[in-house]
Amino acid sequence: MGFRDLRLFNKAILAKQAWRIHTHPTSLAARVLQGFYFHQSSFLQVKASSSSSFVWRSILWGRELYKQGLRHKIGSGRDTFIYHDGWLPRDGVFKSSSPQVLGKFDKVSSLITATRSWDSTLIRASFHEDEANAILSLPLPRRATSDSLIWHYHKSGRYTVRSGYWLASQCRSIPSSSTSSITHWWKKFWRLRIPSKIRIFLWKAYHNWIPSSVMCDSLIQFQLPAQCNFKEFLLSANDALSSENLEFLCILLWRIWFRRNKWIHEKIWLDDESCFSWARQHLTDFVEANCRKGDSLKKATVSSWQAPGIGVVKVNSDAAWCSNLKKFGLGSVIRDYTGKVLGSVATPIHSLVSVAVAESWALEKGISLAKHLGYSTVILESDCLGVIKALESSTLHDSNLSYTFDSIYESCNDLHMYKFSYTPRIGNQVAHNLARLALSLENEQIWPSGIPERIIPFVSADIQQLSSS
Predict the structure, then answer these.
(1) In angstroms, what is the C-alpha Rg of the chain?
(2) Three-class SS of residue 348?
(3) 380 φ, ψ to 5°?
(4) Are 384 and 355 in contact (CB under 8 A)?
């Protein structure tokens, strides 16, 4: 079912209830519980009393997991203390561990300039390098907004049971039996090219949910180095065999179990040679079938630049990162249905924001250029699938990306019609190479009706592909 510890899974589910109470305080359940248990304090601070019910105690137990993943999302910074609140975007500890060179009760707003940008000089002088980089990677809204609490371990900023279970698994103490060999086994096991039903079978056998002693007896018949403990046998096989041989062994083990059931229920016995030959053939067929499926998917997704309809322009955008220069390059190009370039822009950005934020900025640059040139019916295209999906569904309004998305939506309000579209990298070559060109620039450059000469070959290739299709 996807989880291995029922207790932690139960805690993750209860944390979901805590999230609902915290984020929907006007719901009927939240108001009833508030009237009984925390009418004089906040939900995140209330403690269980001697009269607390089992349900309420259970919710508070899940709340502890929920609180471990809460982080302040910075808007104005006036509601968040620099040293006392958790606001740094990093896994584990959200509070700053740098020496307190600033005031003990200073707010994050003191790190933000009047132009709504981070004071990089002050930040680098006041925090460790890793913390300074984390702070500078946070996008800020154009207008000061209230700070808020978000769930750090999901890109949407909202709590999910899956992310909560992952955090609970990371936070629990590792039992003595969890050695590095077991970790290596599971990592290798989940990457094997075997059918799902065989994965489930071996997972059950590993945890002794089926009589694995039967497997050991059969392994001895095959003259394989079986241990008295089936789990130990799998771990030793993992160390001794290559991935290909381990795949064959997994399928063979399933066939041995199948033979056992066949004999018990139908009194039909399968000889050793037939088990071996079946396992070899099944592995070969499965690998070949998945290779063909993968090739067909690649062929289906790979395409060249697609022209918009008549009367519509397409804005392609992309971002490129240079780790040596510590800066992003943003590129946007506008073209019509013939592939003719109507305008382009290349912008260098000295920032440590995430790739998703940079991709969003590139889209916003393209929108601004289209509006400046007088185009109001546009298709906004990028090769960042995560950003496009989020813009289409508006699922990241609780995350740090929400500030950037709000700017994009606000820019789109003046357009007559707009649509977000995804294209693979091969269909976004012009914008991609514009972004790479921006890395060599010091200031933004705009070409109102054309494109840099070094990018022309990529435009020509797209036009040629259009004419041949």
Answers:
(1) 29
(2) strand
(3) -100, 110
(4) yes
Q: What H or E segment, with its residue span, contains residue 335?
A: strand 327-335
70: pLDDT strictly greater than 90: yes
Give the CB-side neighbour count of residue 55, counting CA atoms within 13 A: 6
Calculate ∠ Cα 117-121-122, nearest 5°.
85
Does residue 432 surpass a pLDDT of 60? yes
**CA nearest neighbour of 157 among 73, 87, 249, 48:** 73
176 versus 56: the higher-pLDDT residue is 56
The arithmetic mean of pLDDT across residues 189-203, rounded, is 87
With 80 as the cut, is the pLDDT of residue 171 above it?
no
List the alpha helices (DSSP H) in 38-194: 54-68, 120-126, 129-136, 161-171, 180-189
| Amino acid identity at 40 | Q
CB-based contacts of 186: which residues, under 8 Å, 6+ apart? none
- Rounded CA-CA distance 290/300 in Å is 15
What is the helix, strand, coil percentage profile of the chain, to 5? 50, 10, 40
Sign of the torsion formed by the C-alpha atoms of 181, 182, 185 and 187: negative
What is the reported pTM?
A: 0.65
CA distance 319 to 434: 9
Q: What average pLDDT is seen over the chain?
A: 86
Q: Which amino acid is at 93?
A: V
CB 72 within 8 A of CB 147: yes
Q: Confirm if 335 and 313 have CB atoms less than 8 A apart.
A: yes
What phi-psi label fits residue 116: left (phi over 0), alpha (psi between -120 and 50 degrees) or beta? left
